[in-house]
Amino acid sequence: MSITKMDVEHVAKLARLDLSENEKDEFTNQLNAILKYAEQLNELNTDDVAPTSHAMPLVNVMREDETRPSLPIEKVLLNAPDEEDGQFKVPAVLE
């Protein structure tokens, strides 16, 4: 697979970039060099490699859910800047 100058022009148009002819040629060469480098991965034998989503094994460390009594409403509302009828009072966001 290779990138053509038309491909670069198309992507530049989508990105609303105004590229000079020199820049179009330069980006075409750079993108083709990247693809050529990535094609080297096809030479690797990956038959015995298990598919992974991460390079390192990840394990979630989670505690068991435990039911506990809630804080009393009076204690919770001590942190509220304003309260009304046992609830947090906040500024109106709708008129």
TrEMBL record:
Keywords: ATP-binding, Ligase, Nucleotide-binding, Protein biosynthesis
Record keyword Membrane present: no
Reaction it catalyzes: L-aspartyl-tRNA(Asn) + L-glutamine + ATP + H2O = L-asparaginyl-tRNA(Asn) + L-glutamate + ADP + phosphate + 2 H(+); L-glutamyl-tRNA(Gln) + L-glutamine + ATP + H2O = L-glutaminyl-tRNA(Gln) + L-glutamate + ADP + phosphate + H(+)
InterPro entries: Asp/Glu-ADT_sf_sub_c, GatC
Keyword Nucleotide-binding in record: yes
EC nos: 6.3.5.-
Enzyme class: ligase
UniProt-listed Pfam families: GatC
Assembly and oligomerization: Heterotrimer of A, B and C subunits.
Task performed by this protein: Allows the formation of correctly charged Asn-tRNA(Asn) or Gln-tRNA(Gln) through the transamidation of misacylated Asp-tRNA(Asn) or Glu-tRNA(Gln) in organisms which lack either or both of asparaginyl-tRNA or glutaminyl-tRNA synthetases. The reaction takes place in the presence of glutamine and ATP through an activated phospho-Asp-tRNA(Asn) or phospho-Glu-tRNA(Gln).
Family, per entry: Belongs to the GatC family.
Name of the featured protein: Aspartyl/glutamyl-tRNA(Asn/Gln) amidotransferase subunit C
Organism: Paenibacillus hexagrammi
Lineage: Bacteria, Bacillati, Bacillota, Bacilli, Bacillales
Gene: gatC
